[in-house]
């Protein structure tokens, strides 16, 4: 029942992100936003409908081709800076900041980590 209720309650997320260059992935009761510009809109929307975003499960990961991340790259949620991670396991695949590399995923898959 949880995924169905999540889908119903988040059905208008596409509306609040219109006009932004964003990728949205919804699966069961999880959401991935592929743009930093959407977090403020999502937070305002959640506040308006009394929807709770779990800060403990919300992280920031910047996909890049090469180089270091800029120190000013940050996203805040509910007044707190989100934790920035270099890799994140989502739907069984470990994604990492260098988007075309799967070294961590392969290592985790082969060692059972």
Q: What are the segments in which pLDDT stays under 50 over at least 5 consecutive residues?
A: none
> What is the helix/strand order?
HHEEHEEEEEEH
Instruction: Please tell me how large the radius of gyration is.
Output: 15 Å
Strand content: 15-25%
Give the helix proportion (percent range): 25-40%
Biggest sheet details: 2 strands, antiparallel
Average pLDDT level: 80
Domain Reverse transcriptase: 1-95
InterPro entries: RT_dom (IPR000477)
Pfam families: RVT_1
Protein name: Reverse transcriptase domain-containing protein
Secondary structure layout:
Elements: H1 2-9, H2 13-16, E1 24-27, E2 30-33, H3 38-48, E3 59-60, E4 76-77, E5 80-81, E6 83-84, E7 87-90, E8 93-96, H4 103-111
Parallel strand pairs: 3-6
Antiparallel strand pairs: 1-2, 4-5, 7-8
Give a structural overview.
It holds the Pfam family RVT_1. InterPro entries: RT_dom (IPR000477). The chain has 113 residues and is an alpha+beta fold. It contains four helices and eight strands; from the N terminus they run ααββαββββββα. A two-stranded antiparallel sheet has the order 1-2. The protein has a two-stranded parallel sheet with strand order 3-6. It is globular, with a radius of gyration of 15 Å. The mean pLDDT is 80.
């Amino acid at each position: 029942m949880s995924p169905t209720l999540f889908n119903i309650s988040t059905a208008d997320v596409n509306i609040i992100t219109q006009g932004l260059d964003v990728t949205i992935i919804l699966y069961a009761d999880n959401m991935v936003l592929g743009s930093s510009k959407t977090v403020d809109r999502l937070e305002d929307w959640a506040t308006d409908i009394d929807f709770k975003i779990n800060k403990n499960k919300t992280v920031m990961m910047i996909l890049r081709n090469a180089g270091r991340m800029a120190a000013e790259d940050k996203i805040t949620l509910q007044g707190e800076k989100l934790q920035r991670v270099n890799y994140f396991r989502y739907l069984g695949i470990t994604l990492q900041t260098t988007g075309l590399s799967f070294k961590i995923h392969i290592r985790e898959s082969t060692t059972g980590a």
